[in-house]
Design goal:
The complex is a heterodimer.
Chain A lengths: L12 E4 H11 L4 E4 L7 H6 L6 E4 L3 H13 L4 E6 H17 L5 E7 L13 H6 L4 E2 L4 H18 L3 E6 H4 L2 E4 L16 H4 L3 H24 L4 E3 L6 E6 L1 H9 L5 E4 L1 E3 L3 H9 L3 E5 L5 H8 L18 H11 L27 H10 L3 E4 L24 H12 L8 E7 H17 L5 E5 L29 H7 L7 E4 L4 H13 L4 E5 L15 E3 L18 E10 L5 E9 L19 E3 L6 H4 L3
Parallel strand pairs in A: 2-3, 2-4, 4-5, 5-7, 6-7, 10-11, 10-13, 14-15, 15-16, 16-18, 17-18
Antiparallel strand pairs in A: 1-8, 6-12, 9-11, 19-22, 20-21
Helix pairs in contact in A: 1-6, 3-4, 4-9, 14-18, 15-16
Chain B lengths: L15 E9 L4 H14 L3 E7 L8 E9 L12 E6 L2 H6 L4 E10 L6 H4 L9 H5 L5 E5 L1 H8 L5 H10 L6 H10 L6 H26 L1
Parallel strand pairs in B: 1-4, 4-5, 5-6
Antiparallel strand pairs in B: 1-3, 2-3
Helix pairs in contact in B: 1-6, 1-7, 5-8, 6-7, 6-8, 7-8
The chains are: A alpha/beta, B alpha/beta.
Bound molecules: thiamine diphosphate and iron/sulfur cluster (2 copies).
The site of one iron/sulfur cluster has 15 residues of chain A, from loops.
């Protein structure tokens, strides 16, 4: 076989867009980086944290995170802040005014849009913020461009005195590609200079900054018209010319290699005149942008005729398989693209982990009647799914408490006897839940709060938070005391319970007691997320088949290690049919948390010790 | 059974090799895809690897696309374009088979993993997922890599076994894939490296056995 041989590849790294952003921050001389975790942006800060020369922190929420970066920029550092798309909603109060102040050290906001909603509560287009907050927006199309554009963003920020947004999408963040880095910058750290007319945004000062911002918009529009990041790639087939940016660029190139393409890197402000010239060189112009028709609207307003969201979907990725049938239709061709993407099969929705400390809570909640349960965002949102079906609302981070307060105050006569509960995780509580609790106590609400403290940000991979007592580097630091915190927020000490979520009887008792009492109460769980080092496994269990009666109670726990082995339909003495489900426990997966034993009346769940080959499953 | 169409890939041809790695969170799908990518990278190819792993740690479907060649544009493999599939679970192989080219190599670990939604009776697991794949449109190979891994001492070895199984089908030599795999364990000690070497070899052998059975 004539196999190719390995080549020298010192400079060629195979890294994701997120890691490329981290390397760019380092090579740009960035010295402060902050973030609150959120898919698909989380790894950016995890990678930056590996560089000792950069101060890195997990902040409490995105607003705090952006403000830390703003402070660092004003202090003369190059600073980067990363977040997922919905994070900008939280940070926007700071962003909308910081744009008047600008930047001293380069200030770069990296935002990751979850196009296609792989794990988010909505799909929003962060490029809007560029328009709203008068910021330039850079849109890399792969990891190499993520590196280059992040580096460039720092300089652009300093040159035009403006925070710069780098807009990523899931297909940039999590796609690995070949990246070659360039020579690092030597950044001259500036000093803090008092300048209240610029940094103190009272009306009188802010008013004077607005015309400067408008002027900056003008300049940036000019820059965009001529910037090398906005370029025309000529093509032989001028029937359609594409205007595109971000991940969609490569989808277009893959599908229509012969078409002329206007590739946008600095996508806002848009180079309208350059695109107008390009439009004149092709028969039809098609704008391919993920997600909203932003550029399209601006080009139409400038009198350029084009196709856009009239022929392309306004949701999800514009991958080759999505583009082809739309463009075929435009050209009047019969599309031969296979519409079917995957075979019709059962789904595999995400579930809580084996032995997750949230399992017991949802077992109880699904067995308590007469409730309205406001949920929040985290792993415990999965409690809305099978087998628990235990959440009635989920909106935004922290909303469980305030929405529960609103449900309490807004409920009808008929709903007065219902118990209103809020379920929230530790990280989410600190992010934006504490305010809701204070609102409840201050305004005399009647909400029973379940604060699920697993000492980590489970959903995004088990990052540290103030509840962990560890910082981003795993070093010891303050560990928040939730009991004291809730007391300080006005909950009576006797209305605060700390419970072990694996002890079902204790949980039931605390819950039944607190829902009866017409004042705010908080039940705090105290066992760690199983993904973190704090969690220790116990010897696994098994099901004694002779004793299992097929009652299926343990299946209500929802632990993925419990599997149905056999079903049987029996006729009960009253003549009704009943379906029995006999189970077994996947001993290699079970970590012996003992939760399910609480639900098994015939005590059929027993230690697996002397049966399974423990060595076979416990190799470290 | 169709004869194996080993994709031939010269560095200066425009052809791109498309490999789909599919399975369930926690099985090592992304690691296997990474090893394939590293091997291709070492040979000087352009490589892109993308995942669809919505909440992978929570037992969801994980799909990894690996594309390599002189130049790779879009990272996603379109339906009908995959040259090869490594499936860590039989129903997942069935789920993605519409992505395969006709005659593509499909290598399946036929150790089924039943999700809770099936356990509690909301959905059915297909009776014979591989039967549905054996319609002649692809070159199907399957063996119980899950059992083999447990016999070797750790179910996480499935990963290395499956890489071994596909190794003789790649447009480069199996040794290059083995090197890329073992490089991951360099810092973790000789014992683990050796264990994975054995798993990889076992995968290669298992494939060869299956192959001779298949053509019998
Ligand atoms: C505004 C916003 N920022 C970040 C996220 C990403 N995110 C989803 S859940 C979550 C926190 C989960 O932690 P916790 O509340 O402790 O619950 P756990 O997952 O550990 O159960 C985060 C950061 C988001 N959905 N929205
Ligand atoms: S990651 Fe942690 S909190 Fe999330 S489901 Fe798993 S154990 Fe539970
Ligand atoms: S003891 Fe029961 S609930 Fe806990 S991990 Fe094992 S099977 Fe799951």
């Amino acid at each position: 076989m004539n196999a190719p041989q390995p080549v020298q590849q010192d400079q060629r790294q195979f890294i994701s867009g997120n890691e490329a952003v981290a390397q760019a921050a380092r090579d740009a001389g960035c010295s402060v980086a902050s973030a609150y975790p959120g898919t698909p942006s989380t790894e950016i800060l995890e990678f930056i944290a590996a560089y000792p020369e950069i101060y890195t922190e997990w902040s409490i929420n995105e607003k705090v995170s952006l403000e830390v970066a703003i402070g660092a920029s004003l202090a003369g550092s190059r600073a980067l802040c990363a977040m997922k798309h919905v994070g900008v909603n939280v940070a926007s109060d700071a962003l909308m005014t910081q744009t008047l102040i600008g930047a001293v050290g380069g200030l770069v906001l990296v935002v990751a849009d979850d196009v296609g909603l792989s794990s988010s509560q909505n799909e929003q287009d962060s490029r809007y913020w560029g328009r709203f907050a008068h910021l330039p927006v850079l849109e890399p199309a792969d990891a190499q461009e993520a590196y280059e554009m992040t580096r460039l963003a720092f300089g652009l920020s300093e040159q035009y005195d403006v925070p710069v947004m780098v807009r990523l999408t899931t297909r940039i963040c999590h796609v690995k590609g070949v990246v070659v880095c360039s020579q690092p910058d030597i950044y001259q750290h500036k000093n803090f200079t008092k300048d209240p007319a610029r940094y103190v945004m009272v009306p009188g000062n802010a008013k004077k900054r607005i015309p400067l911002m408008m002027e900056r918009d003008q300049q940036l529009s000019q820059v965009s018209e001529e910037h090398p990041l906005n370029r025309i790639e000529s093509g032989s087939d001028t029937e359609i010319g594409f205007v595109t940016s971000g991940a969609a660029y490569f989808h277009v190139k893959e599908t229509y290699p012969d078409a002329p393409v206007f590739k946008l890197g600095l996508s806002h402000p848009a180079p309208i005149e350059a695109i107008r010239d390009f439009a004149a060189s092709v028969n039809r112009l098609v704008v391919v942008e993920e997600v909203e028709p932003l550029l399209e609207t601006e080009l139409r307003a400038a009198g350029i005729s084009l196709y856009g969201k009239d022929i392309l979907p306004r949701i999800g990725e514009l991958s080759p398989q999505v583009l082809t049938p739309c463009i075929d239709k435009l050209l009047g061709k019969n599309s031969d693209e296979k519409l079917i993407s995957t075979a019709e099969l059962f789904p595999r929705p995400p579930t809580l982990c084996v032995a997750c400390p949230h399992l017991g809570i949802y077992y109880c909640l699904s067995h308590i009647k007469n409730t309205i349960i406001a949920g929040d965002i985290g792993c415990y949102t999965l409690g809305a799914g099978h087998p628990w079906n235990a959440l009635d609302t989920t909106i935004s981070m922290g909303a469980s408490l305030s929405v529960a307060q609103g449900i309490d105050k807004g409920r009808s006569e008929a709903d007065q006897n219902k118990n209103v509960l809020a379920v929230i995780g530790d990280s989410t509580f600190m992010h934006m839940g504490m305010q809701g609790l204070l609102d409840i106590t201050y305004n005399k609400g009647n909400v029973t709060v379940l604060l699920l403290d697993n000492r980590a940000v489970g959903m995004t991979g088990g990052q540290n938070a103030p509840s962990s007592g560890l910082n981003i580097h795993g070093e010891a630091t303050l560990q928040v005391d939730f009991r004291k915190l809730c007391e300080a927020l006005g909950v009576k000490p006797e209305r605060i319970h700390e419970v072990n979520p694996y002890e079902l009887p204790t949980l039931f008792k605390a819950l039944r007691e607190e829902v009866k009492i017409k004042e705010p109460s908080v039940i705090i769980t105290n066992q760690p997320c199983v993904l973190t080092e704090r969690y220790s496994k116990l010897p696994p269990l098994k099901v004694d088949e002779d004793r299992c009666t097929g009652c299926s109670n343990c299946l209500d726990v929802g632990c993925p290690a419990i599997l149905v082995s056999r079903k049987e339909t029996v006729i009960k003495p009253n003549g009704r049919e009943k379906e029995l489900s006999f189970v077994n426990i996947d001993t290699a997966a079970c970590t012996g948390c003992n939760l399910c034993t609480n639900t098994c009346a015939p005590d059929a769940i027993v230690p697996a010790f002397n049966v399974g080959n423990i060595n076979a499953v416990e190799v470290k | 059974m169709m004869t194996s169409q080993k994709p031939s890939l010269e560095l200066n041809s425009d052809a791109v090799t498309n490999i789909l790695v599919v399975g369930i969170g926690g099985q090592g799908v992304m690691t296997a895809a990474d090893v394939l990518s590293q091997a291709a990278l070492a040979l000087g190819y352009d490589v892109k690897k993308t995942e669809v792993a919505g909440m992978a740690q929570r037992g969801g479907v994980v799909t990894s696309h690996v594309r390599f060649g002189k130049q790779v544009l879009s990272p996603a493999i379109r339906p009908g374009d995959a040259d090869m599939m490594i499936a860590f679970e039989p129903a997942e192989a069935l789920r993605w088979h519409t992505h395969m080219k006709s005659g593509a190599v499909v290598m399946v670990n036929d150790y089924p993993l039943i999700p809770p939604v099936v356990s509690i009776g909301l959905y059915d697991y297909p009776d014979n997922p591989l039967g549905q794949l054996a319609d002649g449109s692809v070159e199907l190979h399957h063996f119980n890599a899950g059992e083999a891994a447990i016999e070797l001492g750790d179910r996480r070895l499935v990963n290395s076994i499956m890489l071994g199984a596909i190794a003789d089908h790649l447009p480069f030599s199996p040794e290059i894939l083995e090197q890329a795999l073992l490089a991951r364990f360099q810092r973790k000690g000789e014992a683990l490296t050796e264990l994975n070497r054995r798993a990889f070899t076992l995968g290669r052998q298992a494939f060869n056995q299956v192959d001779s059975l298949a053509t019998a």
